[in-house]
């Protein structure tokens, strides 16, 4: 037998698995089309294209999925490859792999039945909740029966393929001969990585047809990479023109004029205010997990935030403020871009998030120097990419030289604030006003801190959340005291807000109590102390501060100026929790969930409880208008 042919035969176990994979793909695609495609108006005339394009997609995905198998055959020395233990191992591994493939094929059928789609971000995100999800799957689906069928069919497949696999063990094949055969595979894999996206052949205007064409495993990994989910396919939706009309009515009371309604956008031109503060510096401190539940000013018995409470009483204290979500990226998304928390993940983690409408863009257009400072490494959650791509100078752990203490999350907040003061001094010397967002990290597990703070209830370790909150508050006080010594202090507005609460708890779909966060705007030379009881959210911070400054600007922001909107009863708050999103108005809450579900509830802010109520169609429609419009604008690169 010629060397090249022997080398090809050596890969016969790999080829057998690929063949099974391709056959399963054809069978599954045909079944999915018959069961779900026909009712979605995917006619039989489209079936040849679906099967052909799907076969190509499956073939490309097999390059990825079975790469470890191919490398194993390539690299295992010949004398070991042909031993009996390795033969047993490969037959067993082949049977196990085919079992898994058959089981996943059945799983994908049930998934398509439920979500009318291939594996996507829903499947990916469900992995974060194994107890609930696997218990539900066990109760709802014939797990053992499917597994039994998969094992049986895999055993039969290996039995019938044994004659095709066996020759791979019979010939001596040198490494250089195996490399010659492996080279075309490696080239094909490299080309697929570089040039072949998951949806390359999804060319139809019919979403279901595109789902049938795609490969489920590839779609899963793409969702993991891009957190991409089609809003209209999974959530309640309406006509875009109706959504725009509702948003126009909702956003109109603050007096700004709409400039791009004809383009389906909510961009507004905010006129200059004669009573504005002018071109003051603006510094926003986004404090990690700094929930209102720790503040005595907010009614807590814990009294862990005396510095915040003291400074808040010297400025504008917003007593009824909510976070958009439960992660740092949600808080930064809302604060930076005044953008609703659309389903699944923050826009910080999505492709296409550069050059969007942002507070930094507005400030840059007004002649400011914008920056983002983070105590950790900003590659985490794609923060550096997001902020650098939206006009911010980024300073993270790599730019902080003087360090008192650090842990896995980054330098201590004191060190971050020291670097911020140094940076602001440099910007002050440059002669232009500055705008900066500072993201702290210390109030986070493992809750470790520098020595010398024990008298404040902050042990070096073991202090848990209490130590974390106390340290975050101590560092905030340190920062504001040090800032007061700087020449730029009198002309600076400080905004202090949490990125989110400490943790989400409770049985409610949207546990509002855990979304309550502290917020203050502090500038003692320019802003008189006042308590603001109006409903306030993170997406309203940028418009509110810009309203205080009083300069003319245009932006696509969904938030409003909370200090200049006349009707407080019309104010709304938007939330995300897992896969649910929600809208709150006048203590009425509508939750929008996967499967286009919706639920109307009445919230008791005193008892922190919910009661079901009849469908609030008006509020539901307004919630749809916010989330669907935001999703569409971002998806089509029109939020700019």
Structural class: alpha/beta
Described by strand count, sense and barrel closure, the largest sheet is: 8 strands, mixed
What percent of residues adopt helix (DSSP H or I)? 40-55%
Radius of gyration in whole Å, from Cα? 29 Å
Query: What fraction of the residues are assigned to beta strands by DSSP?
Result: 5-15%
Report the total helices.
Answer: 22
Q: If strands are numbered along the chain, what order do they take across the biggest sheet? A: 7-6-10-3-11-13-4-14
- Return residue spans where pLDDT drops below 50 for at least 5 consecutive residues: none
What is the arithmetic mean of pLDDT?
91
How many strand units?
A: 21
Shape descriptor: globular
Q: How far apart lie the N and C ends?
A: 64 Å
């Amino acid at each position: 037998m010629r060397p090249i042919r022997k080398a090809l035969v050596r890969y016969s176990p790999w080829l057998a698995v690929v063949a099974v994979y391709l056959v399963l793909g054809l069978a599954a695609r045909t079944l999915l089309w018959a069961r779900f495609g026909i009712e979605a108006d995917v006619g039989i005339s489209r079936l040849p294209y679906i099967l052909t394009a799907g076969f190509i997609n499956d073939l490309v995905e097999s390059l990825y999925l079975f790469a470890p198998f191919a490398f194993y055959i390539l690299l295992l020395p010949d004398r070991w490859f042909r031993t009996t233990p390795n033969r047993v191992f490969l037959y067993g591994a082949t049977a196990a792999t085919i079992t898994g493939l058959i089981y996943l094929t059945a799983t994908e059928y049930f998934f398509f039945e439920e979500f009318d789609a291939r594996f996507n971000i829903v499947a990916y995100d469900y992995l974060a909740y194994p107890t609930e999800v696997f218990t539900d799957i066990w109760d709802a689906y014939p797990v053992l029966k499917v597994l039994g069928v998969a094992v049986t069919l895999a055993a039969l497949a290996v039995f019938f393929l044994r004659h095709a696999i066996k020759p791979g063990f019979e010939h001596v094949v040198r490494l250089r001969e195996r490399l010659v055969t492996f080279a075309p595979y490696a080239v094909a894999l490299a080309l697929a990585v570089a040039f072949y996206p998951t949806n390359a052949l999804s060319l139809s205007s019919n979403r279901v047809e595109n789902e049938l064409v795609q490969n489920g495993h590839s779609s899963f990994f793409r969702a993991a990479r891009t957190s991409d989910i089609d809003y209209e396919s999974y959530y309640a939706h309406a006509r875009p023109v109706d959504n725009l009309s509702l948003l126009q009515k909702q956003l109109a009371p603050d007096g700004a004029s709409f400039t791009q309604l004809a383009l389906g956008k909510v961009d507004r031109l905010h006129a200059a205010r004669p009573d504005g503060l002018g071109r003051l510096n603006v510094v926003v401190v986004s404090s990690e997990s700094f929930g209102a539940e720790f503040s005595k000013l907010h009614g807590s018995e814990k009294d862990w935030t005396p510095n915040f409470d003291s400074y808040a009483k010297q400025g504008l204290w917003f007593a009824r403020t909510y976070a958009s979500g439960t992660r740092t990226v949600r808080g930064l998304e809302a604060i930076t871009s005044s953008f609703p928390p659309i389903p699944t993940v923050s826009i910080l983690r999505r492709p296409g998030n550069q050059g969007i409408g942002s507070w930094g863009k507005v400030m840059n257009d007004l002649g400011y120097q914008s920056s983002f400072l983070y105590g950790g490494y900003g590659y985490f959650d794609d923060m550096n990419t997001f902020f650098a791509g939206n006009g911010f100078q980024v300073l993270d752990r790599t730019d902080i030289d003087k360090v008192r203490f650090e842990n896995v999350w980054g330098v201590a907040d004191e060190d971050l604030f020291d670097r911020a003061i140094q940076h602001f001094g440099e910007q002050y010397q440059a002669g232009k006003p500055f705008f900066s967002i500072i993201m702290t990290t210390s109030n986070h597990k493992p809750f470790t801190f520098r020595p010398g703070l024990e008298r404040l209830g902050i042990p070096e370790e073991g202090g848990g959340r209490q130590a974390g909150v106390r340290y975050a508050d101590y560092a905030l006080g340190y920062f504001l005291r040090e800032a007061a010594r700087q020449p730029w202090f009198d002309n600076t507005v400080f905004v202090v807000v949490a990125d989110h609460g400490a943790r989400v708890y409770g049985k409610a779909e949207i546990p509002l109590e855990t979304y309550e966060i502290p917020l203050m705007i502090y500038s003692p030379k320019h802003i008189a102390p006042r308590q603001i009881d109006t409903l306030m959210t993170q997406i309203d911070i940028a418009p509110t501060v810009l309203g205080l400054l009083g300069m003319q600007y245009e932006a696509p922001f969904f938030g409003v100026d909370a200090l200049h909107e006349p009707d407080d009863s019309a104010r709304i708050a938007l939330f995300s929790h897992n896969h649910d999103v929600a809208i709150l108005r006048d203590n009425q809450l509508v939750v929008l969930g996967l499967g286009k579900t919706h639920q109307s509830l009445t919230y008791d802010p005193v008892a922190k409880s919910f009661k079901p109520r009849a469908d609030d169609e008006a509020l539901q429609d307004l919630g749809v208008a916010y989330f669907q419009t935001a999703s569409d604008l971002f998806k089509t690169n029109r939020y700019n």
